[in-house]
Structure formats: structure tokens, C-alpha cells
Design brief:
heterodimer; A: 2 domains; 5 helices; B: alpha+beta; Aldehyde Oxidoreductase, domain 4; 3 domains; 7-stranded mixed β-sheet; 5-stranded mixed β-sheet; oxidoreductase (chain A); 2 iron, 2 sulfur cluster binding (chain A); 2Fe2S_fd_BS (chain A)
Chain lengths: ~160, ~775
Amino acid sequence: MLSLNINKKTYKVDADPDTPLLWVLRDHVGLVGTKFGCGVAQCGACVVHLNGEAVRSCVTKASRAEGKQVVTIEGLAENDDHPLQKAWLELDVSQCGYCQAGQIMSAAVLLKENKKPTDEDINDAMAGNICRCGTYLRIRDAIHLAADIQAKEGAGK
Amino acid sequence: MVFFGLCNIAAFLFVEEGIKPVYIPIKPDICMEATKTNFNRRAFLKASALAGGGLILHFSALAKLGFDDKSQLADAPAQWNEITGYIKITDDNVVKILCPNPEFGQNVMTSLPMMVAEELDVDWKKVVVEMGPHDNVKLGPQFTGGSMSVRMYWKPLREAGAAARNMLLQAAAQTWAVPVEELSTKAGVIYHEKTGRKGVYGDFASKAAAIPVPKGVKLKDVKNFNVVRHSQKNVEGAKIVSGKPLFGLDYKQEGMLIAMIHHPPAFGLKLKSFDASAALKMPGIKDIFSIKMFEDGFEQAGFDTRSFNTLLVVVGKTTWEVMNARKKLVAEWMPAGDTKDTMGGRVGKREVTVPGELETTATQLEKMKQHAAMPANQMRKDGDPETAFKNAAQIVERTYVAPFLAHNCMEPMNFFAHVTDEKALLAGPLQGPGWSEPTLSKILGLPADKIEIQMTRMGGGFGRRAYSHYQVEAALISKKMKAPIKLIYSREDDTTYGIYRPMYTATYRAALDANKNLIAFHVKGGGIPENAIHANRFPAGAIDNYLAEGWEIPSNITIGAFRAPRSNFNAAAEQSFLDELAEAMGKDPIDFRLELLARAKEKPVGKNNEYDADRYAGILKLVKEKSGWGKPEHSQYHRGVAAYFCHNSYAAHVVDMVIKDGQPYVERVFSAIDCGIVVNPDAATNMVQGAVVDGIGNSLYGGLTHKNGEVEQKNFHSYRIIRMHEAPKKVEVYFVQNDIDPSGLGEPPFPPVFGAVANALYKSTGKRYYQQPFTSPQSEVPTV
């Protein structure tokens, strides 16, 4: 029995400890915002945070997450109002939308570590996330906008 | 009446785009029936516990599975009054508009309801939008493909909105005992100015639902639109960014099992035998068996393409357990040899031989070369091209080649099915429920009205999800297991079991006289297994002596629609050739095209020219102006231009390329589009930007190769997809402003990107590129 802390809640999961975190989230816990795209850490659709680091949950054994804080797109912000989520809606980034949770989770770690990323910073940090619809330009713009929102919100606190 | 005509248009356009036409009969007289639903709030919630047909049940079933906000369910209104098939209004004034067509990112779930709302005259911000059930009688053809959604629903949806508004007005007039002509509406409120009375639509909805649908309604002048032509945000945006269950892969039901398919590892192979003893012992595994797709002689419709007829299936409790068990499965494969398929459809029943060869890319290329030298079918001939070529002072001849492409939808193929002896429920991502249903009905032996298909949001489509095989597979597995199941393809399954973009080639020849005038044009195209040539498109109609020919090589590699079928190759080849031709003639590439278009307008050659020369010239002039054609912003930019017409729309791009770390990089793009009225401008811009990125990626990196029938690319480490750092810094999109009815947009901006990239590559490197992908697919794949 695995014990996992996901989005500040504890879940007891009856699964093989080698099961990738992705499938524990999707099949056992019922959090399906984290997406399956490739299964081999190539597309970024499955990015979640493990103790604040972006990891690809499709190649992360669930046992590795024990005793750590897992955050998925569903738990990124209490009211789904993370600056990135606001910016994504403001710029209407999504087309099919399938990759966007992974994009946002990767970008969230970037923004935490780099308050004012340049285009180059964004290109480097986001090169592991594929968007087949080609919304990259809007993702880039939305990350810049989110950085501004984050700065304003920070100043307001 | 409305849909009858439209279906004919749809069928015609599919012929044009090379997709086998499917005719969906719609009973015109009941297209817009008004019915009042009988569910009160209690019945509504109670009904949600059941699975089955019907509008309300459908909504409830999805809500139960977390497919809709809990809040929405809690606020479930007392009574929905259905006013035309697309609109439901409650007594307490909740206005709901159903989207008829499946959503794969082209944003129809927003744009189609916008068209209803425009004529209904409601406050868009207060409208509840929901994906409709599959019901071709009530909701029309309901397919996503051929860039048809907006154009085929443009009139019917506005008419539905206008009819509903008219019925609400009549209901108000009856209630207030005033002449209906004295009433007006604004944003969902009905006013009677003389008496100062007003009331919201909900006040009259119940009465309106009983009023017969008016025949013939007056539509708004497009100049008075206040919803359409104004940017509205994606109605599912908030759900997407918060990870709500929306997609087929997210769909769940109590007791649902997971199934995966083991298909032959190469085209041309079939299952010989298998040993499941070790795999069956793996935890969570329920069963392992083979299924047969089609019985001998099964008449295949246009979207019934399937790569293999016998498939090995593993069923278990969870995805990971099934994936693990597959590794223990021992299967033996053998050559399938030549096989026979029975094709049905409009052309009539016919037998087709599928060759058994295990194909290899080098051999495919060699075969195409040989076929290109043989006589081909004449597709169009104007004047006397043979003599013109004989008398030419100079002949320019170039051959272009492009590979198979995989769609690579981010959400791999998957589908839910629960099949019992009496009925079937299927749910998941698909483009044409009306295409799949007759096939499912035949294979399951169930009447169509016992098959319910629910359309989830699709994680991409690009043509791939028009094909029903994965739905049939899911249904057969559920039937065998007597349980609800979800079939999931791994990425490797998805890449290696494809309905691919075909492999194409074309040789273009142009004859010039001693004064470098273009006197004849010849295109001879072919492919595996189809040729791409659109014989009646530009530059046909602009040149006195013209010849188009085509040939095909049969193959067992399954192919189908891929974003702008055939056009996606033609625009690459033809637009590169025109660039090279302009250079040989000493002309600017845009001016050269404009000269040809002027000729096509003033004195068109031949018949059946598909394009409007004025509109075609219009986008070239617009992109020339907006890009500052003669003067790129930076001196290091190498410019390429291309334009194309397809799906009744016109698109031109100017791309600015630089060489960065030895690799071509498109830094900036200017796009000019004429698709008539733009329904949702910001979303349309997004779609064009996406098509530009998609075109750059596929032209530079895309490609699928075979070795002895086996697909050599298995996943994104070997099939290169464009990534963030390879996407342009800026794509500026300009739409031609006119009041022409909307034409296609999902596909038209895609094909000319290929040509513009090829032409910019020439300017960057001094070398012409004739074979796609233009860079090695293996270079520069980022490691993570």
C-alpha cells in the first residue's frame, strides 16, 4: 500500500510501487488533469511537481513520491487562479488543450525560479513540452504575462 | 430543407479534397422541431442515474462522470424548454446552446454556438454551451473535417437562432395580447415599448416551445452582428487550464476495464499464433484474445480504413498492469500475402487487392521514380502542351518528394465502449459519429437507435479521428468481455498503427519561349497509394497550354485525411516550382503570380477553374504590403513567399528565416487570409498561428519511413515534432475584410507554409530543397 500526499491530501493507494506516478494519479486516484502523451519523457504532457520540482510522472515510479509533496494541475492553485492559469485564459492560449496542463506545470517551476524570464529562458525551460496544435507563441506570451501578474500580486501582498 | 442542400455541398467538397464522400440523409422537415421536455428537476436528477439516449440523459451521464461542473448540476434548472434542436431555455432564464460538431481544437464549441446566439439575440456571457448528443436528425451532419464546420452550419445555426427568437416573440405577443410587430429584443430581453413592458426569454420559453417553428426567418444584416465577428474566448478554456476531465482518455465508468491492442509489427504481416500463458499470470489481467475486425466480404465505407484485420487484445484492471502484461505476451507473425478488401460507398461495391509486400522506404522511392517515367492518367489538358514544349527555348523541370506523415495527436487513439446484447454506449474522441454509427451497427448487429455515441473533447485530430477502426475495436472488445472497457493506444501503438498522410511525388515542367514567356505548364503527380494533384487549381486557368496527369501505386500502408489532404503536398511542390520559375524568368515571385492571376481573371483558360483570381491576388497583395516585401525588417532575414487556395479559402505567407547554429530557423511570419467573414477573430488568429507552426515543423522535420514494412519511428524521440525554441518569435495574421459567407480555416493556412519555408531555405542557403523533410529528422532532437 502506497501512501501519497497529492495536492495536500493523503491517499492510500493499492498499486505496485513501480507503477508510474502518472497512472496512479489517473487510474487509482482519479486525477486526470495530468495527461498521457508518450510514456517516455519526451512530450511533457504528464509534468507534475514533486517537492516543487517539475518531474515527468510517466517515468517517475510512484514509490519515489512517497514522503514527498505531489502537486498536479488540479492543486496548482486553490481556486484555479494561478497567474499562469489567469494568463492562459486572458490570451486564450488553448486549441485542443490536451498538452496545456503539462505546459502550465512546467512554466510554474520556471516562474518560481525566474521571476522575469526572457524568451530564451522560456525556450530553454519549455523545450520538453510538445504542443501539436502549435500554440507555442501564445504560451510564450502567456508566461510573460503571468510573470507580470505574479509581480503585481506579489507587490499587493 | 436547409440540411438537404448542405449535405450535397459537403459531399461535393469531400470529393474535391479526396476524401470518400459520405452522405448523411437528414429529414429536412424535422430539422428544427420544437419539443418541450417533460423532465422536472427531480426527474432530471433521477434520470441521471441511468444510461441511455435522449438529450437530458446524455447531459446527466456526462455530469455524473465529472464531465461537467458540479455547480452546474446542482443548479440544474426545473425545466428545459427546447426551442429548435440547438436551444434550450429554462423558465428561470438559463439559455443553453448545444454545439453540434465535435471539438478538436478548432474552437467550434465556441464559434458554432456564437452563430446561434447572434440571431437569438442573447447576452453571450450568460449563455451555457454544451456539446450536443449525436443526433443527425436534430443537429445536422455533425462531423469535423474538410474545414466544413462553420461553413456548413453558417446558415442553419443562424436560422435556428432567428427561429427561436421569433417563437419567443410570438409567445410574448400572446401573453401580453399585443401585435408581435411591436415587440423588440435586446440581449435576451423582450420589450414592448408602447406599454413599457419587458420580460426575459425565460418568461416565455415554456410557451414558445409549443409554437410551431416558423418557415423562413429573416436573418440579420452581417453589418449588425454583435457576437459573431467579435472575439469570444474559448468556452472550455477554464476547464482546460484547471485539468477538468474533458477528453476521451479521461472518460470513466464504474467497473470499466482497460484494453490495449497488440498489432502486427509491420505492414504486410498478420498474426500466426500467440502464447498468452505468461502474460495471463500478470497481476490485474482479465483476458487475452484475438479479435477479427471485418468478416470476409464486409463492405467498407469511406472511413472504415483499418490497417490489420486480426488484432491481439490484452484486457486488465489498470493501464499499467495491461502495459506490463503486454511485455510477457509472445506472438508469432507471418506474411499476410496479397489480400482482398471489399469496398462499398457511393461508387458501388468493388473488390480491391491489397499487396502483401513488406515495404522499405528506399524501394518506395525507387518505385515512384519508375512510375513517374511511365504513361499516366490525364486529368486536365488545355491547348497543345506537347507542341509548346517541343518549340520551347527553355524547359524548367523539377521533381518534388514528400514522405508519409503520422498525425501524432497529443491524445493517443482511445475509446470507451459498453456493448450489451440490447444496446451499445460508445464515448470518446471522434470526428464523425455519423460515419462510425452505420459501421458499428453492422458489426455489432444492433439497430442504429440502440447505439449511443458521446463526443468528448479531442486531444487533436488533424483527420486521424475520422476513421472508425479504434471505435470498432473498442466495441468488439467490450462485447467479448461483456463489460465496459476503454481501449487505449500507447504512443508507440499510435505511431505505428496509422492512417497516414500518403507519400507523394510530382514533376513540374514549364516551357519558356525565347523571350522568357511562359508558354506551357505540365504537372505529373503520383504517390503511394494516391496522387495529390488538384488539376483545376492555380496555375491552371492562367496558362494557354496546360497538362495535368496522375498515377498511383497500391500499397498495404493505410492512408487517409491529414490536415488539408493532398493540398499539403501540392502547395509545397507547386509553390517551390513557381518560385524557381519566377527566378528563371527574371521576375519577382509575387509579381509573377499576380501576372498569372491577372491573366486568369481577364481571359481564363479552360473550364472548371476552382479559384477566384481576384481573391487569390488579394491575399498576395495584402501579404506583400504587410510584410514590407521588398524590405525585410532585418538584413539577416531570408524571405520566402507562398500562397494557396483550398477549402474555398485563400492563404499566403511570407516567412523570414535565419540560420541559427547551423540550423534554419523561421523567426517571423506574415500571413494573409481570405476566408470570408471571420466568425471569432482572435481564435481564428490562433488557428492560423498554429497552422504556421505545424507547417514549419512538418516541412523541416516531419516524416515516417519503413523498413520491411515496419515503421521506423516509434515515439517522439525518433519522430521529431516542432518545439518551443523552434517556433517563430512572431506570426502576424491579417484577414481580408469582406462580407462573403465564411469558408474553411482549419486547413487552408497550413499547405502554403511548406512552400514558403522551401523558398526561404533557398534564399538562406543558395540551395533548392526538393525532398521533405528539409532537414534531417534526427538532428537537434532535444534530450530531456
